[in-house]
Design a protein that fits this description.
The structure holds two protein chains of two kinds. Chain A is an all-alpha fold. Chain A is 60% helix and 0% strand. Chain A has four helices and no strands. Chain B is an alpha/beta fold. Chain B is 40% helix and 18% strand. Chain B is globular, with a radius of gyration of 26 Å. Classes of the chains: A mainly alpha, B alpha/beta.
Chain lengths: 80, 580
């Protein structure tokens, strides 16, 4: 998958998760940028992303990722 | 019963308000993070057409909320309190117990849990729904743990068993079989370790819908939404093949072909019948041919007398089912239709949307597991009298057959030789009384549901007067068929806070007998007025005018009857003198 395709897919997941079609994520996007993105929503998001890309994050990655850019990096790694 | 639905879909369903649905107040106390579970409960309840009004306590506040009599829990006044404990928390407690004391762990954990049930029983009228503990073997002892009393494995099994025993003795408590749900999942689908370590949620989002569905089935049963009857197709449903074509020797039941799968289904249906669920046949067949296997085939578990009705003709099934429903006089929503043919299922589901129509798997081998997994037959009460229900319905059919022989209906009623008992609630009848309040929808003035312990409470209350009525006639015994609860009110008033009656005894002047009895009891209690109220529901329009017909006067605040001025109404029912 190309970077662009990953971000596009992520947009869909985020928009669905937060019920907001205006959301567009970039590498620098963090939880501070989206109002309802709390620790519970983070779990939902992670599971939805894992479902979408057919991969799994480790526990450390789930709690440790600082921004969407890091997330994308892991997704790319896993998908190879 | 819910189809496979995802957490995401339930989350969507749980959004917003649905005030048009009947409400059920639930309090949720958990020792794990319950937010997602509650979301699933709300969504799942909406699928069952119930609007849950939830108070969700903060994390790990079970003890606090129950002990503090001014807590939000008590303020919420819920219909049911859900206590959601997880095995993980239990394990954390277990490992802190010194080895020598571990053999007593299950007992002390049970004592703690039952203690809370008792506080809730003392302080509230709520039912308690308790999750049982998901089974885990920590493998510290391996399988040997099963026989080693100091192992967690041993104590965990013991705890679930002790909870079963305790729930049998505490009639306001209803357990949820978490392991029955867990058994449908691979471990990694039921539990997501990361989610537990990060967010203290011991269940995977994948498993929450199924768990929520199980709790909602219990809630439905508490609301009286119970399954009462299974309507069964015959060909390729109860046996392999078509009786009209394959004949007695060709149908598959027993060891032949797919036989074992059908035999297993029949055996299970027979168990349901024994429990008190009614079975009816609705088959497109020649009646004689359809009955042959039940009469002559040695391998059939079900026999003709297992069915309350046997309808075999060439009419469309929806019409036949409507006829069955009318005869049995139960709601369509308490009927389950089991048919292997998707066209038939679709026709019935379209014509009768409120009927339960499971989408059976194509492979007969998968059907029993599938039906069991739907958990369609949840209940909140059981008495051994239930197993006679099929016989009672069969006897009722005999009764209706003799009506035409009489010149007047009154003559017919007198000839039935009806005798009724009237008495205050007693312990022996508590289960049946509770059950009747949960199941009756049509002849039900205020639709108040009682669990067994609530029945006991009102029976022992000095502020209430209770009556139950049984009926028998020359054909047989109906058992306990009506329940009345009256509240003592100021001004020498007895307010009928509940009056319900089984639909099987309508139009027999039982209503007149009961009012005569209530007046007698009112006089004995020094009351001068009986007041009744009718609360309309979609199912009870038949009783909108019953008080008026019995001579009550309709006023703004209900129906009034002057007890002193009352003269007994004519009735064909005679008093059986064992009442008090």
């Amino acid at each position: 998958m190309t970077n662009e395709e990953i971000y596009q897919a992520l947009d869909e997941v985020f928009q669905d998760e937060f019920d907001d079609e205006t959301i567009h994520v970039e590498a620098g996007t963090t939880a501070d940028d989206i109002e309802d993105w709390d620790s519970l929503a983070h779990i939902d998001l992670i599971m939805a992303i894992e479902d979408r890309f057919g991969m799994k994050f480790t526990m450390g990655e789930v709690t440790g990722m600082k921004d969407v850019g890091e997330m994308v990096g892991i997704i790319q790694e896993r998908m190879q | 019963m819910q189809a496979d639905i995802s957490f995401k879909e339930l989350k969507k369903l749980a959004k917003g308000q649905q005030p048009e649905l009947p409400a059920f107040k639930l309090s949720v106390l958990g020792d794990f993070s319950t937010q997602h579970f509650v979301t699933c409960l709300i969504g799942s309840a909406r699928l069952a057409r119930i609007d849950l009004d939830v108070f969700e306590a903060d994390y790990d506040q079970i003890e606090m909320q129950i002990i503090d009599s001014h807590s939000e829990l008590y303020a919420h006044c819920a219909d049911a309190v859900l206590i959601a404990q997880c095995t993980e928390k239990l394990y954390q407690k277990f490992v802190r117990v010194p080895e020598l004391e571990r053999i007593g762990f299950a007992e002390s954990a049970t004592k703690e849990i039952v203690g809370r049930w008792e506080v809730l029983a003392d302080r509230t009228n709520s039912s308690v729904i308790q999750l049982t503990f998901a089974y885990e073997n920590d493998r510290v002892f391996g399988s040997y743990g099963l026989s080693e009393p100091s192992s967690f494995t041993f104590q965990l099994q013991k705890l679930n068993f002790l909870l079963s025993e305790a729930a049998a003795a505490n009639k306001h408590v209803f357990l949820v079989d978490v392991n029955a749900v867990k058994g449908g999942f691979e471990r990694s689908q039921f539990r997501d370790d990361r989610v537990f370590y990060i967010a203290k949620m011991p269940f995977s989002l994948n498993a929450l819908p199924a768990l929520a569905s199980e709790v909602v089935q219990v809630i439905r049963a508490l609301r009286g939404q119970v399954a009462k009857c299974v309507v069964l197709d015959l060909d390729n449903t109860l046996w392999g093949g078509v009786i009209g074509d394959d004949g007695l020797e060709g149908i598959q039941i027993g060891e032949l072909g797919n036989g074992p799968a059908f035999a297993a289904l029949q055996t299970w249906l027979k168990e349901l019948r024994r429990r008190g669920i009614l079975l009816a046949v609705c088959s497109k067949n020649d009646e004689k041919a359809a009955k042959e296997p039940f009469e002559k085939h040695a391998d059939m578990a079900l026999r003709l007398d297992d069915f309350v009705m046997f309808v075999a003709n060439w009419d469309n099934k929806a019409s036949n089912i409507k006829m069955i429903q009318e005869t049995l006089n139960i709601g369509f929503d308490s009927m389950v239709f089991v048919d292997d043919n998707p066209f038939e299922r679709h026709q019935v589901k379209t014509m009768i949307p409120s009927m339960v129509v499971p989408e059976l798997p194509d492979d007969p081998a998968e059907r029993l597991g599938f039906l069991q997994g739907l958990d369609l037959f949840e209940t909140t009460s059981y008495s051994t009298a239930d197993s006679a229900r099929t016989e009672q319905y069969q006897v009722a059919a005999k009764r209706t057959a003799t009506v035409t022989a009489y010149d007047s209906y009154e003559e017919y009623l007198d000839a039935l030789e009806m005798r009724a008992e009237a008495a205050a609630f007693d312990e022996f009848h508590y289960p049946r009384i509770a059950q009747l309040t949960q199941r009756s929808n049509q002849f039900n003035l205020r639709t108040v549901r009682y669990t067994e312990d609530q029945v006991e409470r009102v029976a022992n209350s000095p502020d209430h007067v209770t009556r139950y009525y049984t009926l028998e006639d020359k054909f047989g015994d109906y058992g306990l068929i009506s329940v009345v609860v009256m509240d003592k009110r100021e001004g020498d008033v007895l307010f009928v806070s509940e009056w319900l009656m089984s639909c099987r005894v309508l139009k027999r002047t039982m209503e007149e007998f009961i009012i005569n009895d209530l007046v007698r009891v009112a006089r004995a209690n020094g009351a001068r007025t009986l007041v009744g109220e009718y609360i309309a529901t979609p199912k009870n329009s038949m009783v909108a005018d019953v008080y008026a017909r019995m001579g009550f006067e309709e006023r703004e605040d209900g129906f009034h009857l002057d007890v002193e001025a009352y003269s007994a109404k004519n009735t064909s029912v005679k008093r059986k003198e064992s009442g008090k």
